[in-house]
Amino acid sequence: MAGKKYEAAKAKVDRSKVYNYKEAITLAKELANTKFDSSVEVSFFLNIDPRQADQNIRGAMVLPNGTGKTRKVLVITQGAKEEEAKAAGADFVGGADMLEQIKNGWLGFDIIVATPDMMGQLGRLGKLLGPKGLMPNPKTGTVTMNVAQAIEEIKKGKVTYRTDRDGNVNVMIGKCSFTDEALAENFKAIYDQMVRIRPAAVKGTYIKNCTLSTTMGPGIKVTIE
Q1: What long-range pairs does 192-195 form, CB within 8 A, spacing at least 24?
Q2: Where are the alpha helices (DSSP H) in 104-215?
Q3: Torsions phi, psi of 40, nearest 5?
Q4: CA distance 6 to 212
Q5: Smallest Cα–Cα separation from 183: which of 9, 33, 37?
Q6: What is the value of pTM for the model shown?
């Protein structure tokens, strides 16, 4: 059952209206009712069939103003790349030793970057890491020999996006403590990215719905116009 604060906030959103994204950001921040610095998220409902390989959207990008969230990076590599990863600011670095810790239940990280030569060993943990969204993937830039660049981008505020089975893509674009301008820049960047990667097979309306919300806050329908 929804709480009184949520219902009060929801009542302030005109359900018949589609808000300009800048208006929506201002309103969403006003309606945020958590005691902590709420996250701001955008959700896209796309006219795609995720079961088709050419419509299964997945990727990553660095938002102009980051996300406001610090992410702990684990780099799975070996040899000289270990020193490169440490120098670049990785929180944890290792090879077989780290894989053994994960196998034993350790998950004290937010994202894994791996060099291609380690994917054979890492793949054995697919059943553990896959369902948690932690398996590295070349499409998101987390399987790479350029570990320093990957770490730098993640620390700057790189976000990953992936469609679910219903065609939804959810992306965090910042915190309520961000200025309206910073959130607007981040929103525009991810919106433009969604438009840019529109699958060629999609006919008609591509973005069927776009909604902005804060943690535990009501959804606000958004337009880029």
Answers
A1: 193/59, 193/61, 193/161, 194/44, 194/46, 194/57, 194/161, 194/169
A2: 119-122, 126-129, 147-156, 180-196
A3: -115, 130
A4: 15
A5: 37
A6: 0.81
d(CA 139, CA 187): 21
**Residue 106 structure tokens:** 């350790």
Chain segment 20-72, per-residue pLDDT in tens = 999 999 999 988 878 889 999 999 999 999 888 889 898 989 999 999 888 89
Residue 20 in tokens: 């300009």
Cα separation, 155 vs 72, whole angstroms? 9
Q: Which residues contact 188 (CB under 8 A, 6 or more apart)?
A: 21, 224
Nearest to 3 by CA among 217, 211, 221: 217
| Residue 195 one-letter amino acid | V
Under a CB-based contact definition with an 8 Å cutoff, are residues 5 and 218 in contact? no
